[in-house]
Specification:
CATH topology of the largest domain: DNA polymerase, domain 1
Number of domains: 3
CATH superfamily of the largest domain: 5' to 3' exonuclease, C-terminal subdomain
Shape: globular
Helix content: 40-55%
Largest sheet: 5 strands, antiparallel
Distance between the termini: 46 Å
CATH class of the largest domain: Mainly Alpha
Strand content: 15-25%
CATH architecture of the largest domain: Orthogonal Bundle
Length: about 210
């Protein structure tokens, strides 16, 4: 069982990379988000999900343990295979997947190739009580507030994915922070989330 590899990127393709480890080249499937950050001849260390079936063996690579754990959880849902799991991680960062599950945000998953409404429904319903998902440090104690904040940014003209990431970033910055410039108020509210997200978005655009 291969758990982790360290080597040199030999080739980069649309959906996988070849990693040379002391002369042995491993083909590793990755999300598009991961592929975008890899370059030929660069050194890399990847967490590996080694999937063994009667007819084949597949290696899926991740740049963080969190991404691997999220992949493992979403592919535990019936009907969600390797292709769908990597497609989801191609459009959503691990914390965004967790946030979508905990807020029951089905629409976030349908942005991934091959993920329809029924699969998105299964993901949100079957994983909402997952112990692994709940261990992630994502502040979503008031799901309706988070969903409303994302919706408010979309109404202001931001793309859905951009809005979701901005709210997730605002939540992360607000954990343990008091009120103030860019920080969340002690009581979580839609207005506080939107204000904090807009500050971050304006900073990123500069």
């Amino acid at each position: 069982m291969i758990a982790k590899i360290t080597g040199t990127i030999d080739e980069v393709f649309i959906d996988q990379v070849y990693v040379d480890v002391h002369g042995v080249c491993y083909g590793v499937l990755c999300s598009k988000r991961t592929i975008a950050g890899l370059q030929k001849n660069a050194s890399v260390t990847m967490w590996i999900e080694h999937i063994i079936r009667a007819e084949s063996q597949t290696l899926c690579g991740f740049m963080s343990r969190d991404e691997q754990l999220v992949f493992r959880e979403i592919t535990s849902v019936q009907g969600v295979g390797v292709k769908a799991g990597l497609a989801i991680l191609s459009v959503l960062a691990p914390k965004d997947v967790v946030g979508a599950i905990l807020t029951q945000d089905k629409r976030a998953f349908t942005a991934a190739d091959g993920v329809g409404a029924k699969m998105a429904e299964r993901l949100t319903v079957e994983l909402k009580n997952s112990k692994v998902i709940k261990t992630f440090d994502v502040l979503v104690d008031e799901p309706s507030v988070v969903a409303d904040a994302v919706g408010a940014l979309v109404a202001l003209g931001y793309e859905y994915g951009v809005a979701q990431r901005a709210i997730s970033d605002a939540l992360g910055a607000g954990a343990g922070a008091g009120s103030g410039a860019g920080g969340l108020e002690p009581s979580l509210s839609t207005e506080a989330l939107v204000r904090s997200a807009l500050v971050k978005l304006s900073t990123q655009s500069k």
